[in-house]
């Protein structure tokens, strides 16, 4: 499964990185008619196409992982006469050809107890066909949108690896990537908080709730943990859960944790917050209490 999550992580980094660069250029502040923004995404189609091929690879590897858990030899393709020459003492499994991606769903549902539903099969086929368009024709017939790629990645993880908490997994991935080796991992929380803000902005309320358990309509607060670990500006990545006046649980989409809070008026007269961290910091104005 790690090979699948690596592919999905790389696709995620590409997609969110493109959005971040547009955001960082502050194009929205002067592109009144959206013409420059449209051109930016048009010129990003080849890069988004690379991300889509990685998403398809993630889907494929996830299905192969489930099948291999039953018996890895079920993945082998071709007749025995077409297998690699056996003049060597040991033949690597990687030297054998495995079945085509188009046959994975049928094989999965033939041998795995966890049957894939029609909606997921349709999604898998759609991703596979679009990937084939890119590989064989150089581009997809339809423009690739950032939101659909994000939802493809999250759908793959939610259905085929439901035990994975995506943002926690992103933290593990970023802490182990090449930048953390070359420099340090001090930047990771900033990156994840920025990704979370982008995702909250782009995804609809139902998708945010489905994939993260995050309420887009709720008032947002600083996370007492993440806000302390950022190097730059703090991000509003948390909300009360449930979103009620008496709630003392604060959920953060970045660290994917519930934090205890105290409900009392902030000491700053100009701040209307009554959500204070357990160690005494206002989670709206960040004032010590």
Model description:
By secondary structure, this protein is α+β, with helices and mostly antiparallel strands. It has 2 domains: 2-164; 188-277, no CATH class. Helices cover 49% and strands 7% of the residues. It contains 11 helices and 5 strands; from the N terminus they run H-H-H-H-H-H-H-H-H-H-E-H-E-E-E-E. The chain has helices at residues 2-24, 35-43, 45-70, 104-111, 118-137, 146-160, 166-175, 178-182, 188-202, 205-212, 226-229, and strands at residues 221-222, 236-240, 249-252, 257-262, 276-277. It has a 5-stranded antiparallel beta sheet with strand order 1-2-3-4-5. The protein is elongated. The model has no long low-confidence stretch (mean pLDDT 91).
Give the biggest beta sheet. Answer: 5 strands, antiparallel
- The share of residues in extended strands comes to 5-15%
Uncertain stretches of 5 or more adjacent residues: none
Structural class: alpha+beta
Measured as a percent range, the helix fraction is 40-55%
Q: Please give the count of helices.
A: 11
Distance between the termini: 46 Å
Instruction: Count all strands and give the number.
Output: 5
Secondary-structure element order, as H and E?
HHHHHHHHHHEHEEEE
Bulk shape: elongated
Q: Strands across the major sheet, in which order?
A: 1-2-3-4-5
Rg (CA only): 23 Å
**Count of folded domains:** 2
* Average pLDDT for all residues: 91
